[in-house]
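Protein in question quoted in full.
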Amino acid sequence: MFKEYDENGIILYEAEHFNAKDILTCCQVFRYFDKKAYYTVLSIDKKCDIVEDKNKIRLITDDKDYFNNYFDLDVSYGDIIKRLYSLPFMAKAIDFGKGLRILRQDAFETIVTFIFTPQNKISKVKVSIEKLCEELGEKKDGYFAFPTIEKLIEVDETFFRKIGAGYRAKSLYSTLHSIYDNKFDIECINKLPTENARKILCGFRGIGSKVADCILLFGYYKQDVFPIDTWIKKVYGDIFKKENVKDHIMRYELINLYGELSGYAQQYLFYNKRQ
């Protein structure tokens, strides 16, 4: 894949490893819209339209550098795939989702949005998050920005229930106030070893080990994680032929198998198994 910038955004050529559907529907992000002819992606207060055709992909945005990083465009997924392809169960998963990329999302937005996810349908999560942005986010040109923490702490649990958070409303209220009241440095997580970072995130209400690993992978781009959910448990059973194994043991064995590319492996395997 190679790219060029123009006045409207970024143009990708020979982009075998960039497919909007693969990237956006693998449950790593919630603020996107399928407009049939193109996809719209929102992140913080920024917007990007993805227009795909046979010869090129156009990323239409005013924030070129941000979305260059967001879509991980400086990383060669061809090289990653070469290293993963021969490992157990990877060939079929990669062939199915070869256009997948791991997004480099805003850490704060990732923390908040993933608290909506436990025991919840993705469609409902998307609706709740858009209601959150419409109610509390700054109005932009045709969309709403993700709300700042200052706006989020102005509302109570009732508001979060009203937008569909259900029992997670307590977690959202508690975690947002913990971050704000304690002046928690969101970026400090980046400087910590993954195990320490996971423990800190799990100290917030509503963040268990699976949600913490999702936040570490999608919000902090840490690759030595392996979020364990229903689909990955099935993958684990296929690989190791074992049942009733605790999540932390599954995570350890899967990371041991896929090594420093574990985060990438998890997404390919999850996306393939879920479909």
